[in-house]
Amino acid sequence: MFPVRTAMFAANLWWLTTAYAADPVHWAFQPPVRPAPPAVQQDSWARNSVDAFILHRLEQTKLAPSPSADPGTLLRRVSLDLIGLPPPAEELDAFLSDDRPEAYERAVDRLLASPHFGERWGRHWLDAARYADSNGYSIDAPRSLWPWRDWVVSALNRDQPYDEFVTDQLAGDLRENATLEQRVATGFHRNTQINEEGGIDPEQFRIEAVLDRVNTTGTVLLGLTVACAQCHNHKFDPLSQREYFELYAFFNNQDEPTIEAAPSELFAARDAVVAITKPLEAQLNALAVERTPGFEAWESALAPEAREALPLEVRNVLGLRPEHRTPKQREIALQGYLATDKDYRALRDRLRDARRTAPAIPTTLVLQERSEPRESVVFIKGDFTRPGDPVQPGTPAVLPPLSAARRGGPEGHDGQHRPASRLDLARWITDPSHPLTARVLVNRVWQQLFGRGLVETENDFGLQGSSPSHPDLLDWLATEFSGAGDAANPTPWSLKRLLRLLVTSATYRQSSVTPDLSASPDPVNRLLGRQNRLRLEGEVIRDVALAASGTLDRRLGGPPVFPPQPDGVMALGQSRREWKSSPGGDRFRRGLYTFRWRATPHPALTVFDGPDAFSACTRRLKSNTPLQSLTLLNDEAFLELAEGLADRILRDAPLEDRLGTAFRWTLGRHPKPGEAERLQQLLDAERQAGEERVAWVTVSRVLLNLDEAITRE
Questions:
Q1: What's the pLDDT at 409?
Q2: Is 631:603 a contact under the CB 8 Å cutoff?
Q3: Roughly what angle, to the nearest 10 degrees, separates helices 658-667 and 673-689?
Q4: DSSP string, 159-186
Q5: Are 686 and 699 in contact, with CB atoms under 8 Å apart?
Q6: Which residues, in sequence order, are bridge partners of residue 561?
Q7: 131, 140, 298, 307: which has the highest count of C-beta atoms within 10 A?
Q8: Distance separating alpha carbons of residues 576 and 572, to the nearest angstrom
Q9: What is the DSSP letter of 102?
Q10: Which H helix or E strand runs over 681?
């Protein structure tokens, strides 16, 4: 026992002297200080302050930045990054012929104003929020949470300040005079799984959901691995188990209702229908009361042929002795009798037809604060069956105190002390002086635009995370974004302003063409001497194919849709679900709107590394497998889009330049001579083997499967 006790003591002493001592020099726990952009030698290259920081490091390493990408590549790049769609041929032509100053900046502004901006950047947020359209666990029943997804898209399109965006999702229901939209926003933390199996302990899985909310808040908003402190003090970061459960206490006092969520005009339309149906219901009830006394005489006098003309369920009930009928069965028999009365039948049909005109009101899942709070305790070794010391809502000591963000102080209207609420937590997280929030967000935005964050461990800013490659740039961007230390910033917390700054930089505009890296001091491009080629996400790969084929349905929002998928996928889960492919335009909606089953996700998304929606995903993997090529060639949905591209070529492309036009629709550029020759050879060979349309379908399948088609250069 003695060696074991000694080892345990040594481990605890190590933790106390490293993690819990709250190392004051760790950069992530210090508020960002706004540095001045450094002086550089090639100042003519820099377009804004971002470039000064990048160029300074390159010059220190004796590296030169890459030249700018060609205009066509640049427009396709920024279009895919900002709206997730390639530029149409007419927009590309207009851009290439626009020789006015700041043509590129005008294109960026147009893209930022596009309604598709929210769809593209909303997908990143949905990944982090573990969004899905089903409950998870083995039953994995469908759920209606898409109004929250649409709220995210709308909030990003209107450039809601990030601090308000976060506050609404953490505590919109606690806002003063909370609106329906702010209540819908709390669906962020209803993306947790729901276990509906028989025989479970509901309290266990309620607690599992609360723990998930704590962990997701830490990962997504703070960039910390707080989940490591659920069962014991964090082994590396200055976060104790008690502090973990103080965060837990913020999320332990909510109910989880389902509410109706729709535009006001839908509620008004339903109210108008109710105004018609309510009098009809009263008339029908009055007529039923008037006619009911004749039921027994009718049943006694019912002839065999008249009985046979009645509905089957009515005949079955009438076959029972009256004293053996349940209340429900008596009602079925009574309705059968009343339906024989022409006046009752006419009034009933009027009521039915009126009800059919009522619009369907979608529902969504939200959080709502309880009037009677639950007691929160530390779970010994993280086990909810072993309650320990009680805790109040609180935040880690290594970060700024919560009291500084509590507007109006800790007292309620009656002057009594009140525990901190989720609204207090949201205000603490979004305080401009918070050392983590802005850094985490700008780092994640940088990651989306360059393939790697300035802090490579984008979900771990703690002591075990990577150091920033450009610490001064990270802090400059964080303060630029939040407005901390810059009173002149007219739009603090503006995501669109941040994106415009980044995508108009010379750093972003660089070519991604890779030079000889054999002797490069920066082979992995941490210093950003060039752009990075990025394989597109599964949803965007589908969107690019939809756009190229001319079949894309650009409608925003609404219930999820069901594009084609291979047979047998829905048999892979424990509960077999139906997947009926959507008809009409719904079949060709953007990948964002594809119904997401947790147990049986769409395989075309999974094969391209789509997240599993069980936990927060802050960075998608980018694999390269043969199965991806096979999917693009043979999957029913992609074959359908290849056929759409072929039909578009035959219908809309100039006869003398069909190959070149198809190439531009797919890749945004003209084919090189060797490329055109090889495609022409393929087309000629296919023409000899079959009809013209089949030949073009084959060519279209090749075009949509090219590496360049699924890559952002």
A1: 53
A2: yes
A3: 120
A4: T--HHHHHHHHHHGGGSTT--HHHHHHG
A5: yes
A6: 594
A7: 131
A8: 7
A9: T
A10: helix 673-689
Q: What angle do CA 489, 493, 494 make, to 5 degrees?
A: 85
pLDDT digits (tens, 9 = 90+) for 591-627: 999 999 999 999 999 999 999 999 999 999 999 999 9
Of 147, 362, 347, 173, the C-alpha closest to 251 is 173
Question: How far is 319 from 219, CA to CA, in rounded Å?
Answer: 64
Q: Quick one: pLDDT at residue 20?
A: 42
Domain co-membership, 581 together with 702: yes
Which of 361, 389, 412 is at the close of a domain?
Answer: 361
Among residues 380, 412, 434, which one ends one of the domains? 434
Q: Which residue type, as a one-letter code, is found at position 84?
A: G
Residue 228 falls inside a structural domain:
yes
Q: Is residue 387 part of a domain?
A: yes
Paired with 510 in beta bridges are 68
Q: Which two tokens stand for residue 436?
A: 């983590």
Residue of 499, 254, 511 lying closest to 370 (CA atoms): 254
518 CB burial (10 A radius; 0-12, 13-18, 19+)? exposed
> Residue 682's domain spans which residues?
537-607+624-713
Q: Is the pLDDT of residue 321 over 60?
A: yes
Percent of the chain with pLDDT over 90: 90
| Residue with tokens 């083997």, as numbered in its chain | 689
Taking the model in full, what pTM does it have?
A: 0.92
380, 388 contact by CB (below 8 A) = yes
| Consecutive H or E run containing 38 | none
Tell me which DSSP letter residue 35 carries.
P
Contact 605, 587 (CB under 8 A): no
Residue range 243-279, pLDDT digits in tens: 999 999 999 999 999 999 999 999 999 999 999 999 9
User: Of the given ranges (99-108, 396-405, 572-581), which has the lowest mean pLDDT?
Assistant: 396-405
The answer to whether the CB of 230 falls within 8 A of the CB of 455 is no
Q: How far apart are CA 114 and CA 157, in angstroms?
A: 8
CA proximity to 376, closest of 256, 221, 217, 214: 214
Question: pLDDT tens digits for 401-454?
Answer: 997 556 545 554 455 667 899 999 999 999 999 999 999 999 999 999 999 999
- In single-letter form, the type of residue at position 94 comes to A
Tokens encoding 237: 């970061």
In-domain check, residue 346: yes
- The CA distance from 215 to 247, in Å, is 9
- As for how many domains the chain has, the answer is 3
241 in the same domain as 128: yes
Count of CB atoms situated within 10 Å of the CB of 421? 18
Strand, helix or coil for residue 29: helix
How many other C-beta atoms are found inside a 10 Å radius of the C-beta of residue 308? 8
Whether 667 and 575 map to the same domain: the answer is yes
User: Would you say 423 and 174 are in contact if contact means Cβ atoms under 8 Å apart?
Assistant: yes
Residue 387's DSSP bridge partners are: 379
DSSP 338-380: HTTSHHHHHHHHHHHHHHHTSPPPPEEE--EE-SSPPPEEEEG
Same domain, 353 and 376: no
Per-residue CA distances from 551 to 75, 543, 548, 586, 641 (Å): 22, 10, 8, 11, 8
> What's the CA gap between 280 and 352, in Å, rounded?
10
For residue 305, give Cα distances in angstroms to 92, 97, 310.
75, 82, 9
SS3 category, 469: coil
- Whether 93 maps to a domain, the answer reads no
